[in-house]
């Protein structure tokens, strides 16, 4: 069997060369990391859930005309995506205060924000993905002014879509992070939502109870991460009960 070419391995995913030019296969691992990989574990079934959930969100975005890198899901852990040049920014959108915003500004977690706040972090693990301003982005040439206009518009459209989808199943979208890629089409370039959208990259709180259904469960040792992600998938109708990931070999009587 021919070994396929690994293009990149990150903390939670691996990218392999795709079957056609301009495509990649994105493989979702079970590895969970937090605090810039200082905390690590393997969470059985996480990759399967994130593959399904990211497919669900990216397909929804494609369907409403928000371009993404997603083409189609291939199997339980892999999806076919368009190859793109990732802009070295993490684009964070916040609807409620939480996480680093609460720590930095001393605002209590859960405080509603008067309007969505968009933040940019420079993607560099060695530096701990520092918060940057549009001045830094322009000065260091990470993105042009036109790119920034497009990124802001994409980020807010993703926020509207995700907030609505989650609200419909009783979940509050507190914040999320997306990454943006450049796709070249002849002489033109287009920006697309890339990477993944999953409970690894969002804060999701149950509207009634405030229960956390996202990676904070792992970061803050709040319980079983697979259970939290399975609950999100169940509410969205993404993973029928019969197709839940089998984390361990199960004895069938
Ligand atoms: O940590 P912070 O509060 O800045 O995170 C904001 C949002 O961005 C959270 O939903 C978090 O899960 C996501 N995030 C991410 N990857 C990072 C940093 C933050 O997905 N490297």
TrEMBL record:
It comes from the Bacteria. The keyword Nucleotide-binding applies. GO terms for molecular function: ATP binding; phosphoribosylaminoimidazolesuccinocarboxamide synthase activity. It catalyses: 5-amino-1-(5-phospho-D-ribosyl)imidazole-4-carboxylate + L-aspartate + ATP = (2S)-2-[5-amino-1-(5-phospho-beta-D-ribosyl)imidazole-4-carboxamido]succinate + ADP + phosphate + 2 H(+). It holds the Pfam family SAICAR_synt. GO terms for cellular component: cytosol. Gene3D superfamilies: ATP-grasp fold, B domain (3.30.470.20), Phosphorylase Kinase, domain 1 (3.30.200.20). PROSITE patterns: SAICAR_SYNTHETASE_1, SAICAR_SYNTHETASE_2. Keywords: ATP-binding, Ligase, Nucleotide-binding, Purine biosynthesis. The keyword Glycosyltransferase does not apply. Belongs to the SAICAR synthetase family. This is Phosphoribosylaminoimidazole-succinocarboxamide synthase. It comes from Roseivivax isoporae LMG 25204.
